[in-house]
Amino acid sequence: MAVGPGTLPEFETIRGFRLGTAQAGIKYPDRTDLVVMEIAKGSSVAGVFTRNAFCAAPVTLSKEHLEVCAPRYLLVNTGNANAGTGAQGLKDAQASCRALAELQGVEPEAVLPFSTGVIGEPLPVQPLIAGLPEACGALSEAGWAEAAAGIMTTDTRPKGATRRVALPEGEVRISGISKGAGMIKPNMATMLAFIATDAKVSQPALQALLSTAADRSFNRVTVDGDTSTNDACMLVATGGADVALKPQSEGWHAFAEAVEAVLMELAHAIVRDGEGATKFVTIEVDEAASSREALDTAYTIAHSPLVKTALFASDPNWGRILAAVGRAEIPGLDLEALRIYLDDVCIVENGGRAPAYTEEQGQRVMSQEEILIRVVLARGSACERVWTTDLSKDYVSINADYRS
């Protein structure tokens, strides 16, 4: 179950970035569960990671390797998170990196590992290592669609986005894939995302660009309010197009907008495929005193089980939204000035139900697959958006049966 069509695009290939997949049998037989991505020499690589204190062994190792070496390979396995596995988990991640490094003739530090799946179980290292020759043998610049499927866990469909951008400096391409459906909350989420461009960008500029774009996209989506142990988002600039860009460049703004658009599309695809989701919900808080106030209010609504179950039932129970705003701890909130809308239908004003509101109007909006909840606080000029889902019976079933 997912919202919208969710078809993969025809990916733009990125010169200097190749992807290969394999069926290693890490958890299930006959399922693609191993992905290798090869990065050309001289590329810049940026990353943002989970802020969960119990971050997984591959996250710890990837951050360490990024500090000492220019990455040449990204290694992704599904079926096992290698999180909550202590010292052995770190040894297993290191062994995986060594195996790929030996196979491809690079230093182990040039390999960044990524894992996703069940937490607290030992990583099946031998099947993973045994699958590496197949994945490396399949390396291709056209391997995006296969890789998008290969990084899925509870996802019901692969996720990808791509752009070709004409700039004054020349034409560049951007392509990316992501995975995630549950345990999704800002400060990253149970999600992995890999984006590459053939533009030439310095590592510091690339890192700043990714941090800003991820904050506006992946850090604005939430499915269930749980931040994962394994989140990572990587952005690679290979320079394959021989188009050099820097923040002072004429085309930088358009390039940055295109990168952010790819991240936004990938983030929205995760919400649309949220576990058991039947609704794609935008929550906008306008006229807040600050960005933080707007986001806190939006997340209070987005994380309310009562609001989310009403969305699933297509029930215009606007009192649940009102109550969520009221407990967002907004100091000195003027209830008479506050307004709340479902799409263009005003449901609350002057401290209570809007006089012109009817149950039929609310029902019409709540029956849609895509819904906008807009809150106008009348306190300032800040405006923020977050994206979320409803909470369905299928969400409970999926997560109750997850380990079986």
Rg, Å, rounded: 22 Å
Poorly predicted ranges? none
**Fraction of residues in β-strands:** 15-25%
Number of domains: 2
- The proportion of residues forming helix, as a percent range, comes to 25-40%
Q: How would you characterize the largest beta sheet?
A: 6 strands, mixed
Q: H/E series, N to C?
A: EEEHEHEHHEEEHEHEHHHEEEHEEH
Shape: globular
At CATH level 2, the architecture of the largest domain is 4-Layer Sandwich
What is the highest CATH level, the class of the largest domain? Alpha Beta
CATH superfamily of the largest domain: L-amino peptidase D-ALA esterase/amidase
Structural class of the helices, strands and pairings?
alpha+beta
The number of E-state strands comes to 15
Mean of all residue-level pLDDT scores? 91
Which features would summarize this protein structure in a list?
404 residues, globular, alpha+beta, five-stranded mixed β-sheet, 2 domains, L-amino peptidase D-ALA esterase/amidase, 11 helices, Ubiquitin-like (UB roll)
Outline the structure in words.
- It is a single chain.
- The strands form three sheets. Strands 13-12-11-14-10-15 form a six-stranded mixed β-sheet. The chain has a five-stranded mixed β-sheet with strand order 3-9-8-7-6, sandwiched between helices.
- The chain folds into two domains: 17-272, L-amino peptidase D-ALA esterase/amidase; 280-400, ArgJ beta chain, C-terminal domain (Ubiquitin-like (UB roll), Roll).
- Helix 2 packs parallel to helix 3 and helix 5 (203-216) crosses helix 6 (252-272).
- It is globular, with a radius of gyration of 22 Å.
- The chain has helices at residues 57-68, 86-104, 125-137, 144-150, 203-216, 252-272, 291-302, 305-312, 318-326, 359-366, 393-400; strands spanning 17-22, 34-39, 44-49, 73-80, 111-118, 159-167, 170-179, 192-197, 232-237, 280-288, 339-342, 345-349, 352-353, 370-376, 382-389.
- The protein has 404 residues and is α+β, with helices and mostly antiparallel strands.
